[in-house]
Amino acid sequence: MIVGMHSLTKVTKILMKNKQLMLIIILFLLQNSKGFEVTCDTQFSDLEHSITYVLCPADCWRQYSNLCGDRIYSRGPICLAAMQDQWIDGGGGPVVVYRSPGKRTNRYSGGNRNAVKSESCSADGDSYSFEVTCSTQGDSSTLVTQVNCPAYCTGEAVYGSGIYSDKSSVCTATVHAGALPDKGGMVIFYTTLGQSSYNGSTSNGVESKSDSASKGAFAFTNINECVNNACEHGSTCVDGIAKYFCLCTPGYYGKYCEKEFTHCWNGNLTGKFVMKSGDEVVCSKGWLVLQRRFDGSVDFQIYWSDYRNGFGSLIGEFWWGLEKLHIATKPFQCNQCRLRVELKDIDNETSYAEYSQFRVGPESSNYQLCVGGQYNGTAGDSMVTNVNNYNSSGLGFSTRDRDNDNAGKHCADISRRNGGWWFYSCSLAVPNGAWNTYPACPTTPQFPCHAHWNTYKNGIRLIGTELKFRCDI
Prior knowledge:
By secondary structure, the chain is mainly β. 12% of the residues lie in helices and 30% in strands. A hairpin with an 8-residue loop joins β30 and β31. The chain is elongated, with a radius of gyration of 35 Å.
């Protein structure tokens, strides 16, 4: 695959400005490099570049040749050499050829493998191999090239810093740029425009030289950005392609983990965060989400330990946990926190109920609820209502195996329809109720067998709930 200079100029300018586009093109080119078609007689001296993708024809073994060398070859047809080195068979195929400049004092031994025999000979300037060596230069036939550098390539010539003259050793430049350690490994580099000059520098134990203009140049797409990363507060830097990521320690967030996470409401945050305790939390525009349901994939008809510790997935349906609710609201008075209940019904209509007071007590009080104050919303008040003096405030939490309600019956265990909650009545606020009508439950308008909010549309079945709170700092 050969890229013309005019096309190369346009593409490299786009690549240098758009890193995401660069990655897409890199993956495409690496997957679709087929090679430049050659003949059975093609010698390495016939090729223009230090690194060339070629496509060998079939049956090259039939011809006579003066192939010389073994593993590293001094002369002879490149496709025959590729057969002897077992990169292709008699059917031909793609292979990458690397210039490996030999020293005049070296003498290469011949070999006899894969039905191809070669002679012994002296090395010359056109020596080549099918594996990159420390001396292989960055003059590639393709726009994007992937090579597997050997270890300890630190003694070859390099010209430039960041962008390197194409006569530089690729593998020594990787060490200089921080793209690879000196122990070697896989690296990707891309061809770019030749520079008018190159400034030398010393980096990672490699000294590069200054140089004048060159026809071509190359740079790396996976330079180890973590060498000079700005990750803060003991966070871990993860190297990526042309960028890096910071894995934050608990209690910090932001691109560089520079921000301390204290509460969702500190900055009206949205997203998933990690508290200093190590617990994860979901924030929604400054509210801390304590419950979310939207598809019925998580069973809420479960036990005390589950509701105490929390269950589900923070990227799906979940209950955050009573113990965490207690710890989060403990530093505040009840009138310093607010509770918001958001609902979606089977008609795809939404509503909400909001209370100006909210707090959860310790387990020794059965996670006693404080809720009330001023009510606002469109769903009606199903928690602190004046009808029959029903009021969930002051009650303990109930589950299938713990009856702490004030209803004279075990609301959380009736036909497995209600889930865990602070029940005064079995049919008022039931956001953790059965997702679908429970088969054994004789549903009535007064006692629906599904998740509902009694004051909203006469207890219509809910298909979405999100409960959240925030406190004044």
